[in-house]
Amino acid sequence: MKPTIHTIGNHAGEEVTIGCWLANKRSSGKIAFMQLRDGTGFIQGVVVKAEVGEELFQQVKGLGQESSLYVTGVVQADDRAPSGYELTVKNVEVIQHAEDYPITPKEHGTEFLMDHRHLWIRSSKQHAVLRIRDVIINATYRFYHERGFTKVDPPILTANSAEGTTELFHTKYFDEDAFLSQSGQLYMEAAAMAFQRVYSFGPTFRAEKSKTRRHLIEFWMIEPEMAFVDHEESLEIQEEYVSYLAQAVLNEAKAELKVLGRDTEQLEKIKAPFARITYKEAIERLQAKDYEIKWGEDLGAPHETELANQFDTPVFITHWPKDIKAFYMKPDPENEDVVLCADLIAPEGYGEIIGGSQRIDDYSLMEERFKEHDLSDDAYRWYLQLREYGSVPHSGFGLGLERTVAWLSGTEHVRETIPFPRLLNRLYP
């Protein structure tokens, strides 16, 4: 394979040619410094006028930001360089000379940058965030493959809602109604009855009119479902998974974390087991801090942040009131007013990253829930049948990829953790 900036350390002392773009440049009378990127990383190219001649030196000085190039040079070790290497340039071949690149080193407003998202992802910090996203995705596949899970892909077009909500995107499926999926969970429960331990990884959609830094209209979810697994074992798998992701980012994205200025000491604390409190205890802790919240009310972002700040690790909030959780969650046998579920709250104000529960496995109880939630028997008959033919205890959860990327990378807003975000008022580019 041709050398890249990522692998350039394998060619120290050698002359190489790389395809790249000019991210930035500066020059003095005798030396020009080219900040080069090739999609795998960034490196500085040093152009010495006395070595390359007047014509090439002036050509380099006249190049516009984001011009595409073939740059030939000798790889030199340099401890001061972020990559540990720099390139002593011998020749530059211009592929395309770019002029008036919209995103300059000066400050730009968020709306301007979002309008130019197709170009913004080239910048060093955006590049680093999306590289960390890739590390998390690959770590996810490794984690579940190593533990015997089978990846199953649920449909994106569905005839029903996973949680009985109205926050769905409606479309027509020939002569009947259909919706964009807000979760693959129900289908993954069916898959778990066939393969025992499964997971899905795909896009989900919520027509939720929210503008917070934690919300996207289109986002990606990792959703495992596990037969013969109870609530407690599910929590252990969740904390093992999140710890695995944190270690992967620490080990495989050192350069990206440095670019982002991420406090890695915070990431080093993410090791199982995690803190656990019940919903009841969470309410008591909040009331002790003078928050006006009562048992039975949902938690908002300030509540989650307050609770997270009380612990060094992510914290599970377990045993929520049945009335504010989804219809499929199994009641606690010791207190049927609450269900066997948990939300995992990330530290540093990043909020909920996982929601999960043990699922109802009793046919009669699920049928009762259908009636309570006025669920269509025609649309959900197949889901009820899972309790009719070989039902077993089973549990599952969903991890939001973008929130997790935001947390582990230290990025404030989830819009920067997905290549092309879909927001309440944004469908472009």
TrEMBL record:
Description of how the protein assembles with itself and partners: Homodimer.
A Pfam family hit: tRNA-synt_2
Domain of life according to the entry: Bacteria
EC category: ligase
Span of domain Aminoacyl-transfer RNA synthetases class-II family profile: 130-429
Record-stated family: Belongs to the class-II aminoacyl-tRNA synthetase family.
Catalytic activity: tRNA(Asn) + L-asparagine + ATP = L-asparaginyl-tRNA(Asn) + AMP + diphosphate + H(+)
Keywords noted in UniProt: Aminoacyl-tRNA synthetase, ATP-binding, Cytoplasm, Ligase, Nucleotide-binding, Protein biosynthesis
Enzyme Commission number, as recorded: 6.1.1.22
UniProt-recorded Gene Ontology molecular function terms: asparagine-tRNA ligase activity
Source organism of the structure: Geomicrobium sediminis
Localization per record: Cytoplasm
Protein name per its UniProtKB record: Asparagine--tRNA ligase
Family matches, as InterPro entries: Aa-tRNA-synt_II (IPR004364), aa-tRNA-synth_II (IPR006195), aa-tRNA-synth_II/BPL/LPL (IPR045864), Asn-tRNA-ligase (IPR004522), Asp/Asn-tRNA-synth_IIb (IPR002312), NA-bd_OB-fold (IPR012340), NA-bd_OB_tRNA (IPR004365)
